[in-house]
Structures are given as C-alpha cells and as structure tokens.
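USER:
Before I trust my own judgement here, I would like a peer's view. Write it directly below this note and I will take it from there.

ASSISTANT:
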Amino acid sequence: MVAVLAMAAALILLATACGPKKAEEAVKVRIGEVTRSLFYAPQYAAISKGFFKEEGLDIELTTTPGGDKTMTALLSGGIDVALVGSETSIYVQQQGSGDPVINFAQVTQTDGTFLVARKPLNGGGKFDWASLKGSTFLGQRKGGMPQMAGEFTLKKYNINPQKDLNLIQNVDFANIPTAFASGTGEYVQLFEPQATIFEKQGKGYVVASFGVESGRLPYTAFMTKKSYIDKNGATIQKFANAMQKGQNWVQASSADDITAAISSYFPDTDKDILKGSVQRYKDQGSFATDGIIDEQEWNNLQNVMEAAGELKTRADYKTLVNNQFAEKAKQSVK
C-alpha cells in the first residue's frame, strides 16, 4: 500500500510539473496624467497597442488636472507614476523633499502650445512677433510650463510680457478656449486639438508655434519617487520598455494609424481634427523618440524657468534625472 501511495504521489507531482505553468500575475501601475491631451499620444498608443501588457504591467490611468494636483497624488501615494512637466520635480526639490521625484522617461520634447490669432496671416507668410505689442494676450497659468515657454519666446523677440502686452493669466486652464471664443483677447496660447478646432470653426488661426520657438526641453516626462524606484526597479524597466515600444510605433506610423489607436481616449473629438493635430505635432518633432532626457534639454528647461522668474536655484541634472531605464530600453527594444 505504501508503495502504491508513493507511486500515485509521484505521478501527481510529474503531472503538475509537466502541465501548463500559471501565468505570472500582471503588476499594477497607477499613472496620473496632468491632463488628457493627444500631446501624450505615445502613452495612449503604448496602452491601446498592448505594449504594457506585453511587459506584464496592468496600467490604471487617471487624469489629475494640474501639476500641483498630480504631484500631490504622487507624493501622497495615490499614484505610482506621474506624467507631468519636469519642472514639477524641481519645485518639489526646492521645497526640501527628502524623497526626490525622479524623471525616468521623457514623452514630449517641445512645448505643445501654439499662438492662435483671431485673423489668419496675410498671404500665409511668417508671423511678425512684434505685432503682439500692445495687444491683449490670453496666456496660460503662471508658473506652468506652457506659460514659461510662452514668456521665454516672447522675450526672445524683445517683448516684455508684463509691460508690452495686456496679459491675462487668471483664467483656469480648462476655460481658456471658451474665454477666447467668447471674445476675450486678440491672441491666445492653446494646445491641440483646440487650436485645430478653432481653425475648422473659423474662430482662430495658428500663426506660430511656441514648441518650435522655445526649443528642445523635457516638457513632459514620467516620474516617480526615488523610494519607488529603489523598491520597484524591475517594474520601472518594464515600464520604460513599453513606452519605448510606443514611441517606436508612433514614429513609424502615419497620422491616420495613430489617430485610430488613440481615438478612444478622445471620444468627443472629431477624428479629422485628431489627425490634423497629431500631424502637426509629428511635423515639429514634439513626440520624443526615446525616453532619454539629455543634459542640454535639462539645462534649456531651467533657462526657460529662470527667464520666467520661477527658479530659485538650478537643479542638479544627475539628482533628478535617471536615464538608466530609458537607455536600456532604447538598446533592447526594436
């Protein structure tokens, strides 16, 4: 009887060993994005095309409007990873955080706003920035990256935003398009797809790009607390791999294909408008081709912040940027 029982136990163990292995449970990662914007097309593509799932990650995406709310959610543990402007990590450091927020994968590498006027350019020529002087300009929130990139550009063309313009900055981000459409301002600083929507409706016309004018900088990046990276390095590497797949796919795909992949995230926006907006961002190189934040981009970011009077002291590149995950992803993901 003992021999029979031993034989049965051996057969059970053998069957278990030879049977199908249970799939590893996906690791959940909670992302908080600062806004819902097609400027973040590589992120939506990476989710919709299944690249995060391929890496064994289960993504929970929420929108936490505003950099302050996004950073609060990250610091309090409400989210694991934030998709927000890199300047927010510098603000946290300036406040003396003992657990620094680390930028580990860049998503956009230029400003994403455009200068929209009530009238189109005469003859389709190049916009004369000097024509802004004396006008009423509906700008972005003070201290945010869009406003700082906007002011940096204006100063490049010898325009003092506070003295040469009637500058309006007290309108909430979500209400800026409505304010312009209702008659406030002669010029406005807008993201896509709102800029293209206004052109289609004849309410405004894109006359210049702040992204082109302000140059390359880590405008939006994935970041997390150093303590999270220390405990979850393998997860961060998988995350960087998935995003590199998304970035590769966006670079290789047409505006039509990208629109098809991300349109579910913008159910209320016409697909032709999404397509035009995606093409505009592709044409000016706004989507980063990899997650690496180079030092020149980091320094340009701080130049923009200094010009806006929002930088107390310059932040050390190596302290707040960790490229090891993005570099490995770029080498391994094809």
Residues 8-22 have pLDDT under 50 and may be disordered. The longest helix spans residues 233-252. The two ends are 58 Å apart (CA to CA). The domain at 27-110+217-332 is CATH 3.40.190.10 (D-Maltodextrin-Binding Protein; domain 2).
